[in-house]
Specification:
3-stranded antiparallel beta sheet, alpha/beta, 14 strands, 9 helices, homodimer, 7-stranded mixed beta sheet, Aspartate Aminotransferase, domain 2, 355 residues, Aspartate Aminotransferase, domain 1
Chain lengths: 355, 355
């Protein structure tokens, strides 16, 4: 059966990427060896790594603008720490808009003064704070562009004279933005870019080298930059599949092309959530709603078993909401086709006729 | 052409594992989804992770002995730091037997007093130091069991009242040992266990929780233990393929069975290196020689081009030595068949007839 994969991450990848990934595992480019059993210092893998790095910059339109792309390990959770080590001298500002931004803040607190510039915790993170006052003399300001669990997303970003650091794990490569407003972007691959196991870091070189603390080698961006993202053995397969996904996105027309599809998907689903009396969006303010993760609940609890059975029978996977929110979460990352959202919307309409 | 893959790492994996890995990428266990696009919280992946963790303990005969197995990210290079954070209160001892042990020592130096207990640097690391005096009151002692670059290997391990920490990246699961003599073992997967992108950590629980320093979450073994090795999204595919490789090893008869094959391979090659006047082993003392990585040079430099052409024509891959040693390095990890070593030995004999 055709599956409609709404998993929040690791999540759906393009079918053509899955096929090429499997081919590369069996025999990479006809060299009679698997991509996972060749040296990372081989010409073949160096090409993969360089390709992935330059595609990332190209798609974000950051080529030639003083940025470097790295494919590291350890997830965004390791970047919470790396950001701190590389940028925090005395004081940084954090926006607290959900579980992941709170975790980032918590890791940083051991290394300097961390100011919570704004928080939406008072309403279980169901909105994006506005009109944020940013004090002068911050070493950097940190935010999470898309809150996977709660389904909110920054549409505009606060201005700061300090470097702007953004965790884009769940919406990178999904929408056009002026990416030069960020000085450091990081993103775990497993939502919009590839399989779990690698993390993209895009950093403006000029913000580095300004702290006095000792930085451990594996957390030091300048070490990774000086070694072309191969200070130690990189996560070969996750980088390879990320490269394939970025190639797929480029062939499709890049971020402007996928943004249009993503808007169509999100509009289709949110319109149904708002129209159908059996459903209620978790995020009341439509401008704060995530185009990637739509969170919603049933208005009648007694319909739960019926609805759950219906979407499962339709081949839908991964629709259960996170325990912090309850209800449902439809993750509509780049690789999810419009057809899958249409299938979900049809199930929602069908539930209405049965209720 | 059939390739004989002597790559030092990432390195050869069993053919059956490669096939199952590719199958899992296309459609995992018939669920109509790829292993790389399902949630790491799904029943399917939790089973993979738990399987991999318990197989690791079972094969090392450490089940029920107070140890926990974790599959983390960041390579052995991240463990250099994690070991320090988790175990170093004031003073630790390091054995310096090659590039990687020196790097481990260097990372630790920023966090306490590090004593180099012994070093073989005086002879470009071509031997294993013996009769090491271990002072009392160390927080731990650290060593590298197998030196991939230089081709040396500890056959017996120094005794210490302090916890013994061992980087086994290049010989884990290759030979029978009393693994209870170690309190912490770590190993990057990409040699004897799986693809690049995950690192096995096997730790005796009772050595943890004794330092006063703050440990960042991602480096804290107790955090990872409390979350069953899923504090954050784990590297799904590398863990999956590591599990497949550990299953292959178990089916084969475990470590005792593979040790016999590894001994046969190493004996075959070292006998030829010692017999053939055209070759010279880099490690003079046979008891210090690695059963995993045999390092050797030509005795006549002018034969280099001929020899290189001959082994490449025989389908041999990855035989060039590391720049620190020069010459050649034959890495004979678990998945390399005896047939591949026989092919190399035949080429060496053939060179002799031509010289």
């Amino acid at each position: 059966m055709k599956k409609h994969n709404f998993s929040a991450g690791p999540s759906i990848l393009p079918a053509s990427v899955i096929q090429k990934a499997a081919d590369g595992v069996l025999n990479y480019n006809g060299i009679d060896l698997s991509i996972i059993e060749i040296s990372h210092r081989s010409a073949e893998f160096i090409e993969v790594m360089e390709n992935a790095r330059s595609l990332a910059l190209e798609l974000l339109e950051l080529e030639g603008k003083g940025y470097t792309a790295l494919f590291l390990q350890g997830g965004a959770s390791t970047q919470f720490l790396a950001v701190t080590y590389n940028l925090l001298e005395s004081k940084a500002g954090y926006l607290n808009t959900g579980t992941w931004s709170a975790k980032a803040l918590k890791e940083a607190q051991h290394y300097g003064e961390i100011i919570e510039l704004a928080s939406s915790k008072d309403a279980n993170f169901n909105y994006i704070p506005k009109n944020i006052l940013v004090p002068a003399n911050l070493d950097y300001m940190h935010l999470t562009s898309n809150n996977t669990i709660f389904g909110t997303q920054f549409k505009e970003f606060p201005k700061s004279t300090a470097p702007l650091v953004c965790d884009m794990s769940s919406d990178i490569f999904s929408r056009t933005l002026d990416f030069t407003q960020f000085d450091l972007i990081y993103a775990g691959a497993q939502k919009n870019m590839g399989p779990a196991g690698t993390t993209l870091v895009v950093v403006k070189d000029e913000i580095l080298g300004k702290v006095s603390r000792h930085i451990p080698s594996m957390l030091d961006y300048q070490v990774h930059i000086s070694k072309d993202s191969m200070f130690n053995t990189p996560p070969v397969f996750p980088v390879f599949v990320s490269m394939l996904t970025l190639e797929w996105l480029k062939d499709l027309g890049g971020i402007p092309a996928i943004e249009k599809v993503n808007n169509d998907k999100a509009n289709l689903l949110y319109n149904e959530i708002d129209r159908n009396p059996l459903f209620k969006g978790f995020v009341p303010n439509s401008e704060d709603r995530s185009m990637m993760n739509a969170t919603f609940t049933l208005t009648q609890d007694n319909l739960k078993d019926t609805f759950d059975q219906m979407w499962k029978e339709a081949g839908i996977n991964g629709l259960n909401g996170h325990r912090s929110v309850g209800g449902y979460r439809a993750s509509m990352y780049n690789a999810l086709p419009l057809e899958s959202v249409a299938t979900l919307v049809n199930v929602m309409k069908h539930l209405e006729t049965k209720a």
